[in-house]
């Protein structure tokens, strides 16, 4: 499972010219579900997303508070294209969970997110729809999360690649 988490001042989703979801300050999560993902990866990703410290504390200290600490909003968008593998220059999505299976899995993800946080603060797009996602990135801060590969040792060191304020976290 892969997630791209962006700290936002606001974000919204439009389908067919109609805005269906919107949030103020918080995080926008683009979620890509793979063929191999299980409940274990789902729970890992929910925990990481909700506890990711991308906000300042009251004294202005960076990277101190999570979306839950600040009681901010979360906008989730299912995005199978995160499971892309390039074949030459052509994207191939054979690693993405098929739509029929992925919809239930994604709904389970949303359910767990709402159960672990405050349901009224968790919004989402429309699974499988052609959407316009409007994101006002704050910072900019963009972090990529990837659940550990099935069977991977959980003691692997955390890896973090920093480019400006854009971070890539792997196996964390």
TrEMBL record:
UniProt GO cellular component terms: cytoplasm
Catalytic activity, reaction form: a D-aminoacyl-tRNA + H2O = a tRNA + a D-alpha-amino acid + H(+); glycyl-tRNA(Ala) + H2O = tRNA(Ala) + glycine + H(+)
TM ranges: none
GO molecular function: D-tyrosyl-tRNA(Tyr) deacylase activity; tRNA binding
Entry superkingdom: Eukaryota
Localization of this protein: Cytoplasm
EC number of this enzyme: 3.1.1.96
Keywords, in A-Z order: Cytoplasm, Hydrolase, RNA-binding, tRNA-binding
Binding partners and assembly: Homodimer. Interacts with CDC45 and TOPBP1.
Family note: Belongs to the DTD family.
Role description: An aminoacyl-tRNA editing enzyme that deacylates mischarged D-aminoacyl-tRNAs. Also deacylates mischarged glycyl-tRNA(Ala), protecting cells against glycine mischarging by AlaRS. Acts via tRNA-based rather than protein-based catalysis; rejects L-amino acids rather than detecting D-amino acids in the active site. By recycling D-aminoacyl-tRNA to D-amino acids and free tRNA molecules, this enzyme counteracts the toxicity associated with the formation of D-aminoacyl-tRNA entities in vivo and helps enforce protein L-homochirality.
HAMAP family, alphabetized: Deacylase_Dtd (MF_00518)
Protein name according to UniProt: D-aminoacyl-tRNA deacylase
Phylogenetic classification of the source organism: Eukaryota, Metazoa, Chordata, Craniata, Vertebrata
Gene designation per UniProt: DTD1
